[in-house]
Amino acid sequence: MKHKILVVESDVTFAGKAAELLSSYNYSIYTAGTYKEGFEKIKKLAPDIVLVSLGMLRPGSRGDTVKSILQYAGINGIPAVIILPEAIQFPEGLEAFIEKVPLKTVVFKKDVEQVLVSNIKHLVQQAGEKHRQVIEEVALLVEKWKDKEGNLIMILHEIQKEFGYVPRSVAFILAQRLDIALARIYEVITFYNFFRLEAPGKHIISVCLGTACYLKGSGKILEEIKNILNVEEGQTTRDGLFYLQVVRCLGCCGLAPVMTVDDKVYGNMTRENVVNILSKYAKKGELSNGKAYKK
Amino acid sequence: MKLILLKDTDGKKEEAVFQEKILAEMKKENVQGKWQVVRVADMGIYNKGVAVKILPEGFTYTGLSLDDIPALVRTSIKEGRELGEKSYGLKDKQVKIVLRNCGRIDPENIESYLESGGYQGLKKVLLELKPEQAIEELKESGLRGRGGGGFPVWMKWQFARKPESAEKFIICNGDEGDPGAYMDRSVLEGDPHSVLEGMLTAGYLVGANKGYFYIRAEYPLAITRVQNAVEQARAYGLLGENILGSGFSFEVDIRLGAGAFVCGEETALIASVEGKRGYPSPRPPYPSVKGLWGKPTVINNVETLANIPVVFSRGGKWFSSIGSPTAKGTKVFALTGKIKNSGLVEVPMGITLREIIYDIGGGMLNSYDIKAVQTGGPSGGVISREYLDTPVDYENLQKLGSIMGSGGMIVIDESDCMVDLAKFYMNFCVDESCGKCAPCRIGTTQMLEYLDSVSKGKAREDDLPRLKKVAMAVKKASLCGLGQTSPNPVLSTLRYFEEEYLEHIREGKCRAGKCKDLLQYSILQDQCRKCGLCYRNCPVNAITGNNKQGYIIEREKCIKCGNCFDVCKFEAISRG
Amino acid sequence: MAKLTRSKLEEYGKKAPAKAGRALVRVGMSTCGIAAGAEEVYEALKGAVAQRNLDVDVRKCGCNGKCYAEPLVEVVSGGLPAVLYGKVDKRLALDIIDKHVINGELLNDHIYGIDEGKGE
Fold it and tell me: Cα B202–B206–B209 angle (5° rounding)?
């Protein structure tokens, strides 16, 4: 299987060069000419590695899209190579942000040729290792359920439990293993609310909008969380810490309004104690000063 | 040990005074023996003044004044006779059949279930009755399905029993989809073996050797406890080959739902157990003839199955002595909303809504009056307060435009807007419509659009007949139960609260203050103490000013979240 | 584990509910109870019983329906009827052991139900 590498760089010669350098190693190269395109493609292609050049940053830009790309890569375990031209000035906050990206390598543009190949080989090995692990895990699951009819939903439950969502790469493998069309799998995933197609943040916040909770003001709790975290339902905060979702009844109507963070249930919620509860999961002081997630 | 319990059921906290008085009187009367006088937090009696209960005799008195105490102590405590005039005649109105073990036995231990009479019903069916006799017993009990439709259970089983088939299935529907009902979760978590026993009984009588628990994935604890119960039953030989030496073999498996309301519908549920999209299909053929993998299948909900062991251990005749003429036994309701004692109640069929709300639920939560009761979730409707004295059973609720459903009972007060409520349920139905048939897919969206425009004050009066027309079309033409019942919240709110709709349309007013777009917030300057609390709590900085000059709300910026209104301690924010 | 037989099951049926002298403390541990803090209460009760070296059976059970008063703890001991305590926290849990279980003394203001018939 060929590994997919996404190159986010407008400099055609550079992208071409990278392709040339890497072509002998059995990689497929995909390119994106803008950061926005890069963000779309990383979601769509689920590449094994992403190369992001900072050479396209305009003066005064805060590098938000670059952050989105790196964040997506981080959450999904895609190794990132950040290519840093010598002359570039880091926008405020970006350097600190890059520091936090897991599985990353920073390459300086002047020695691209020397460093790139060895770095990428290393990352590909890592990615390949991870890929193999996933294949084995899926194989085990399929083995466990293969004799039971109507097993697809149960397998998907286990996959989501393991990965937090149903990654596209895993769905591919599953289709092969079960010898069914990929569409059969996506048909089921997209029908049921429970399954997610994108990685949630580290902590999953579920706000109950069942009738009892709704009448007792869970709408306001939801608004407050959206305000504090600056996210909408079904979204993850920029730092990947919180994922916000709405659920229909957790079966704790006696404690309405109710929300959960991961497996912990919080009953009799008030708008005022939202901050306190979320603060337990955020870095100290980050939420109480209210600035962490503001636009 | 004699226990003297007391409680001020009006909530005026008079208990301590009465306790002292009773103690003093008892000393004076020199009451012998062992006794305790205890203030309790809840006596199951509400708004009846100071109440005293004496155990073990069970004498109960309400509406007591301090002057009544000497006589009470002398007669009832010292001499052990009942004191006539203040005696409280009413008994606990709950009857626990389904919840008989919940809160009593250890759900993780099969021994605990066996010790409280578990698997005796199954034993009787497997070893003592002929299948025909057992079905007859079930028929005599009058047990009807508790999942919504109220179809007689014996008939469902009989239908599935008839066809010759090498394979038949029993499915336990634990996909409790009604947002506001949670009795199934509670039973699965608190008494999983009773449901399993119900499935085994069904399996034997129908001729099925395989059962499936279909449980919501959102109920992890229920899943764990059922798994555990299944393993224990297997170890005890209550699952597997030749159960109790009867020659009957049965196995069960667990399948998880994945968050689709439509899967509460039998045919959709079957598709989901088969691992497919939960699309419903037209009936007939009914599942009892052609169900899971095309084989005869019985689907019963959790509560129904939990009734089965009792029907057989105590007999159909006993069972049918409880309830109303058309509905036997009990129903568990999840009593929630604006009610003091929010929780699960199990009552005999035929009890009135008023009794449930005031005698068991303890009355309203806040100072607002009751406006209506909603039953049956998104498939049900609201019942206006004029009908609180209606006996609750399948037919009566249907006549009032609602349904029994799975047993959600939500109490609604004057601070709730009926248009907003109808919109809430319609939003749910739009989200949950599976999209297979057009009337439901398009109709629910159209209804939502009308409701939305009413709540924004943008509707016209002649939109209401149009809304009704769409509702009727969806009701008649939809493929499955979800679609057919989805207009109920709209039709029932229109039936009882049309004037509220008209108020929104004609006057642009929402009397409950729930429809955001019709609200304007402003600060009443003469009430305002300039404390700045609203200023600090506004999420969008729409309040400007300072603690010297006071504050104003900038209308263009205001998102009408109501935070200022909620936090103000001086009622200085006007909403209207 | 031995398989259950007909006669064994019949024995269970005949067995009158055990009236053992051992005190029984039940904690409502369904989703709703746990959400309200029942786990903490359960641990506190277990801890207190162990620390005082008491012969008390502390058990998990399901939800009795009084969700408004969770977490719920029911005590059956010393010939007293089953007493249901509501809104129990760690401190109250200790009181329940020290006063009710050890001394047979019912606690004021926390009882949400007394059931004469349902002691085991």
Answer: 80
